[in-house]
Specification:
alpha/beta; Rossmann fold; 6-stranded mixed beta sheet; elongated; binds adenosine-5'-diphosphate; binds magnesium ion
């Protein structure tokens, strides 16, 4: 957990809102700035010393040269040390700020409710967050550094004035031009660099799809088509880079050589002053050094404006996430639910997804303790939605969901979810060992418990045959396992938590009939002694249930045993006929558990 925070007041300016976060690092940050200022002050002395050395040692022979050489060498060394420490501190601060922002965002994302994830594309959100974090971090840490450098420019100018006022003004005359040209250059190049970023992302997407969708590409012999798409995208990137190089080639020589104009003026005017005997010859050398020193801050000042605009836009996107409040949260006085008997009720439930039409309207459903109920309905009738309401992934708009008579909104989410286990249709496995995946909900579980769960889920047989057994790491999303194997791991995972209420959403829809039979054996074990709501398509799944309910138009329209529903509900027959393409709707294969 991070202690970092941003100011929650949305009305404030983005930098002000960031203050609590930055102030956690204020001491190393302040020290870095002070040291870099000190280092620059040392640096500013050097041209002045050079001026004196030439005057006093070379021209007048009054002081030995080694005196100035030692001073200049010493200042250089001191500058190197302060430069090292200040950079170290500054980069530390920068990456600390980045770490804080990143942790803050990720912690916040883990707390946000499902409606948020419905609205945004989370993958894109996270990758975008990375570049946004970087641009905010760069600005808040490097903008002050640039300002310090500009401050030192003032000091340098002071020195120049102290040597000769008129010559200082002449020397500086090209600086406004350096600034303007710098701003122009960035303004020209900035859109191109954005364009290149976007086009690189396009290429990455195509490559990514080629890798992940390699089977589809090969199956349709679509390689030439993919290569053409890649070629188009790669050409677009190349165009961007060539354009960028063109702009760079055009601007850089101008920007780099502009100060030479100032230098020429200094030589011309300063040389005249020297010839007149009004100025020492060393002054011209000192001015040369000062002008080179001043060039960088003036150019960076232009960059600062650009960075600021970009950081502000990035900060807005970051705040968009951080300002989002979780909607499904514990009430202040939420009680902890102890182990329930498993009496589940949905009472006159209305539900709509954010901004959408009502999906459930006045839905009533009662699951008695220990009972297995199959829910069927057309695609889009709201079966998954009902399944999501039991563990309170969403809150109902009207009515209530109760567990042993207690409204799910009145208990803590942790205790509710310990009582309601969910197996989803697309079982997600983490890139970790099978052991870790099964123990996900109970990391402290003993090996015996874990293996018992795997055995009951019908997973043990294939797991022990794997090269490293339970320690086999399953790949990204568990792709190295088949769908049925993944499903059994997911069932073992839920079984280990041992929840009294179980929700299975289409848990076997993705697997073939043979695998389904294996899983059903596991499911039977899983459902024993629990209240189970199972979203079913196939007749074989319905066979696991004591009772069947039919969902249509946002409510339960039929309720009874399979045989009863076949006799009374034409919709039920229709749904079964559609789901089981083989038309086994005569009930012959259905073996109900208790009826
Ligand atoms: N996350 C969501 N956001 C918005 N609408 C959704 C979401 N999930 C489902 N829906 C809509 O709610 C309705 C019911 O969907 P769902 O419960 O998934 O049906 P089923 O599982 O019966 O196929 C559908 O119209 C669907 O488009
Ligand atoms: Mg569904």
């Amino acid at each position: 957990m991070t202690t970092a925070a941003v100011d929650p007041d949305r009305a404030k300016n983005w930098l002000v809102r960031l203050r609590p976060l930055i102030s956690q690092h204020r001491w190393p940050f302040a020290l870095a700035l002070v040291l870099s200022f000190a280092g620059l002050v040392l640096q500013v002395q050097i041209p002045d010393l050079l001026n004196r050395a030439i005057d006093a040692s070379v021209v007048r022979h009054a002081v030995p040269l080694s005196f100035y050489a030692r001073w200049i060498g010493g200042l250089g060394a001191a500058g190197a040390v302060t430069g090292y420490v200040s950079r170290l501190l500054l980069f530390r601060t920068a990456y600390d700020v980045e770490y804080d922002l990143r942790t803050l965002i990720y912690e916040h994302l883990t707390q946000l409710s499902f409606p948020f994830y419905d609205r945004v594309q989370s993958g894109q959100l996270i990758s975008r967050a990375n570049s946004d974090i970087r641009s905010v971090q760069m600005y808040v840490t490097f903008a002050p550094l640039i300002l310090v450098q500009c401050a030192i420019a003032v000091v340098a100018f002071g020195y120049m004035l102290s040597i000769d006022v008129l010559l200082a003004l002449v020397g500086m005359s090209t600086m406004p031009l350096v600034y303007v040209v710098g701003v122009r250059m960035r303004r020209d190049m900035f859109p191109v660099s954005w364009l290149i970023q976007a086009r690189l992302a396009d290429v990455a997407t195509i490559v990514d799809e080629n890798v992940n969708g390699v089977r589809v590409v090969r199956a349709f012999a679509a390689e030439p088509q993919q290569l053409r798409a890649l070629d188009r995208a790669a050409r677009a990137v190349r165009w961007g880079y060539v354009k960028d190089a063109d702009l760079r080639a055009r601007w850089t020589p101008a920007v780099q050589n502009l100060p030479q104009v100032g230098l020429a003026l200094v030589l011309l005017f300063g040389g005249w002053l020297v010839l007149q005997g009004r100025l020492g010859i060393g002054a011209i050398l000192a001015f040369n050094a000062y002008l080179l020193m001043l060039q960088a801050p003036f150019m960076m000042l232009g960059m600062l404006v650009m960075m600021g605009q970009r950081a502000a836009a990035s900060a807005d996107r970051i705040y968009e996430i951080l300002d989002e409040q979780p909607t499904v949260i514990d009430q202040p006085d939420a009680a902890s639910l102890s182990r329930v008997r498993g009496d589940v009720r949905l009472e006159s439930v209305d539900f709509a997804y954010a901004g959408g039409p009502l999906v459930l309207r006045g839905l009533d459903l009662h699951l008695r303790p220990g009972e297995t109920v199959a829910m069927v309905g057309r695609t889009g009738s709201g079966k998954s939605t009902v399944a999501r309401l039991l563990p309170r992934f969403y809150d109902v708009d009207a009515g209530a969901v109760t567990l042993d008579g207690v409204d799910v909104r009145d208990v803590t989410l942790v205790s509710l979810r310990a009582n309601v286990g969910v197996v989803l249709d697309e079982p997600f496995l983490f890139s970790a060992s099978i052991r870790e995946n099964i123990a996900y909900g109970r990391p402290e579980a003993s090996s015996e418990d874990l293996q018992a769960a795997a055995r009951a889920a019908g997973a043990e047989d294939f797991v022990v045959d794997l090269p490293e057994g339970y320690d086999t790491v399953v790949g990204e999303r568990g792709y190295t396992l088949s769908g049925g194997q993944r499903q059994r791991i997911a069932i073992a995972r839920t079984l280990l938590v041992n929840p009294p209420v179980l929700v299975l959403d289409d848990a076997t829809s993705a697997v073939d009939v043979q695998v389904e039979l294996d899983i059903h054996a596991a499911l039977r074990t899983l459902m024993r002694g629990r209240t189970t709501l199972i979203v079913a398509h196939r007749l074989s799944t319905i066979g696991l249930a004591d009772r069947v309910v039919v969902l249509d138009g946002g409510r339960i329209v039929a309720d009874g045993t399979h045989a009863e529903l076949l006799a009374t509900s034409s919709l039920y027959g229709e749904i079964l006929a559609q789901a089981d393409g083989d038309g086994r709707t005569d009930g012959a294969t259905v073996t109900s558990r208790r009826h």
